[in-house]
Design brief:
By secondary structure, the protein is of the alpha+beta class. Helix content is about 25%, strand content about 45%.
Length: about 170
């Protein structure tokens, strides 16, 4: 199962974060419009991610939400009929939350940088560092965290779905 090291933080300005990404030499990878529908499951998380161009993927993942920087173990598959799958999963599992966002993506070495405008929640920064071996991944995370001046008070535990659904146990 693939995995990566993640960190999510609240930011005051997408423009300032974009300027930082450009200053450190991160490469712009595009802008995505996303709707994530989270389903009620017994363990981990399950979401259907639909993109603005009509493509979609189903993503299952598990991570320790108590840590600011956390390893996420995930699996994803492409989905050909997202509307039908959403209806089926809604009947079978129930919907926990729906999150809509516009995501600007940058790549800095083996770290994806996401600058998110999340409907109803605000603006956020997310780092996803590939598994380079525990120590190397943690060093790269520390480097990008420092470059973006991420303070402990800005770090978000949990998921956007927790924030939308008001699940204070997980957020």
């Amino acid at each position: 199962m693939p995995h990566n090291l993640e960190l999510k933080a609240r930011i005051a300005s997408i423009d300032v974060a974009e300027a930082t990404a450009r200053r450190i030499g991160a490469s712009p990878m595009g802008i995505l419009s996303q709707r994530d529908t989270y389903f009620i499951v017994r363990t981990g998380r399950l979401k259907l991610r639909e993109f603005g161009d009509g493509t979609a993927e189903l993503i299952a993942y598990e991570r320790d939400e108590r840590l600011p920087e956390r390893w996420s173990h995930y699996e994803k598959v492409e989905v050909n009929a997202p509307e039908g799958l959403r209806r089926l999963l809604q009947r079978a599992c129930g919907i926990l939350a729906e999150v809509r966002k516009v995501r600007l993506i940058y790549q800095f070495r083996e770290c994806r940088i996401h600058l998110d405008r999340v409907e109803g929640l605000g603006t956020f920064l997310e780092f996803e560092v590939q598994d380079l071996g525990r120590g190397e991944s943690e060093r790269l995370m520390e480097e990008v965290r420092g470059q973006f001046s991420v303070r402990p008070a800005d770090v978000i535990q949990g998921s956007y779905s927790d924030m939308v659904s008001g699940d204070s146990q997980r957020a």
